[in-house]
Amino acid sequence: MDEIADRVFQADDVSIAAGSSSTLQAFDESPSSLSLIIDINPLQWFRLKDQIDLKDLSRSICIYLNCHLSLNSSNKVNVLVANNFSDGEENGGSKILFPSIHTKTDEHGSSFGNSQGKNLVNPNMYRQFRFVDEIFLEELHSILQKEPTELNIKNFKNTLSGALSISLSYINKLNLSNDGLLKSRILIISVTDDDSLPYISTMNCIFAAQKMKVPIDVLKLDKKDGVNNSIFLQQATDATNGIFQKITHPKGLVQYLSTSFLIDSNLRSILILPTNFKIDFRSSCFLTKKIIDIGYVCSVCLCILSLIPKNHRCPVCDSKFDDKVIEKLLKKPVVGVSNTNGKKKRKINSVM
């Protein structure tokens, strides 16, 4: 009996070991894609000049991208910028830094032509790391050189939703070419309030990421006494099972990137991640672009309004509102009128 029991336990140990090795092998061999969106709003970076600047940020990002590529030889990266100022429409909006459409590469990952980023990267670095870092630094340098010398806040337009849509399109393209075996995620490094974000396009990107099962992580950089709002970004991380973390000490950016935001989506179920318990689920008015607590909702397109339009039509879908409903909503409350007949009320149990 003891010999039979020993054989059974040995068989169980072997099967458990085989199952664990196969599980680890499945985790190790599954490649992943990382889409990084960088907020380069110069006005907001000027507020953080005493703590961190774009030069320090670029160094931390290069380390972070190299760490992601080192986890698996088949990992992919995609880097974009948003919220950059520009004089014309050609240079404004969201831009893709890597992979760059202006740089030709061969099948081994080597770039053709002269690159300004080669002067900033160690030539003895691993070839894949050097290739990504050179193009990233070169494209970022060219965009910063095109920034106007005089910045006007009135001409600023938040383009984070556009960068999100580009990232989702890139992820969809990778999934089609890899038969859906590539696990993807998005990381946003933000320094700007998202109150000015277009609500409908931002929520469409969030719902698309939720359907594609792409987690959206947000790293919010702010000062110690900062009151930056991140309502939509908090909702994005909550809807897609992402990570939202606000950092008031940007000097330790590498540590945050290499710990909280280096975890793949297939490993997050077995790890303890940073959680955000204070999530603001308010929305913004389509007309005033302000965050509201109570408003009106269109029954056709679910557009949220803080006031009723004068033409009684939805500004999004142009649906005609019911006049009877509008009349009830605009009707003021009736104030009760006191008794003016001069008659005295009868007392009941010495109570008026």
Automatic annotation (TrEMBL):
Its main location: nucleus. InterPro entries: TFIIH_Tfb4/GTF2H3, vWFA_dom_sf. It comes from the Eukaryota. One of its GO terms (molecular function) is zinc ion binding. It holds the Pfam family Tfb4. Keywords: DNA damage, DNA repair, Metal-binding, Nucleus, Transcription, Transcription regulation, Zinc, Zinc-finger. GO terms for biological process: nucleotide-excision repair; regulation of DNA-templated transcription; transcription initiation at RNA polymerase II promoter. One of its GO terms (cellular component) is nucleotide-excision repair factor 3 complex. Component of the 7-subunit TFIIH core complex composed of XPB/SSL2, XPD/RAD3, SSL1, TFB1, TFB2, TFB4 and TFB5, which is active in NER. The core complex associates with the 3-subunit CTD-kinase module TFIIK composed of CCL1, KIN28 and TFB3 to form the 10-subunit holoenzyme (holo-TFIIH) active in transcription. This is General transcription and DNA repair factor IIH subunit TFB4.
